[in-house]
Amino acid sequence: IIIVMEEIQPNMTVDKDSMNGTTILYVGDIVAFNITVYNTGSHVLGNVTVNEFYNHSELNYYDHSDKALWNKSGDVFTYLNDLGIGENATFTIWFVTLTNGTLVNNVTARSNMTNETNSSANVTVYKRISVNVTKIWEDDNNRDGIRPENVTVELYADGVKIKDATLNATNGWKYTFENLSTYRDNLTFINYTIREVPVAGYN
């Protein structure tokens, strides 16, 4: 009788991918990453875990998918089933971005029979801007008594009107257009300009 012993060769890999495509991301936006572990060996794997590594001052955990299969404890996600030969398991994780720049997210996966395997993905996050407007009157302190109670200013993005605001004595003749995008989806910088609606009796 000849008994042939097949060598067991457990192996696992992990992939992490950004799911945000070409969308321009800003501070405060929610970003998504897809994480997949693969059993590429010749043995069923148990106790499969994925450990998230990221800067908590840059990203804040928001949610993850497939909670019936992936249990979260801190930054460690545990797959609740065995991972069969040739099988894979996937979940999505969402974060809120807390700062601008290139934010890196790393993962380390392991099982009861495999060593650590790693993957990473990153996203570029931009900061929104504000445009401040102040009306300066050059009328010798309303000498002629024709100063209106309100004036309207208009905000243009690349020559197209997108917002307007009313300035008056109550708001100190000031206004701030906030949370403005800095780039279009093709990464073209947006040029903002302000125009004042003409005021009768003033040049």
- What does the oligomeric state look like here? single chain
Derived structural class: mainly beta
Q: What is the CA-atom radius of gyration, in angstroms? A: 28 Å
Largest sheet: 6 strands, mixed
Helix content: under 10%
- Rounded mean pLDDT is 94
Going across the major beta sheet, what is the strand order? Answer: 2-10-9-4-7-6
What is the total tally of β strands? 15
| Terminal residue distance | 107 Å
Global outline:
rod-shaped
Sequence of secondary-structure elements:
EEEEEEEEEEEEEEE
Give the strand content.
Answer: over 45%
State the helix count.
0
Q: Which ranges are low-confidence, i.e. pLDDT below 50, for 5 or more consecutive residues?
A: none
Give an overview in words.
There is one protein chain. This protein is mostly beta strands and 203 residues long. 0% of the residues lie in helices and 51% in strands. It has no helices and 15 strands. The strands form four sheets. It has a six-stranded mixed sheet, with no helix packed on it. Strands 1-3-8-5 form a four-stranded antiparallel sheet, with no helix packed on it. Strand 12 and strand 13 form a beta hairpin. It is rod-shaped, with a radius of gyration of 28 Å. It starts with 11 loop residues before the first strand and ends in a 7-residue tail after the last strand. 15% of the residues are buried. The mean pLDDT is 94.
Structural features:
51% strand, six-stranded mixed sheet, mainly beta
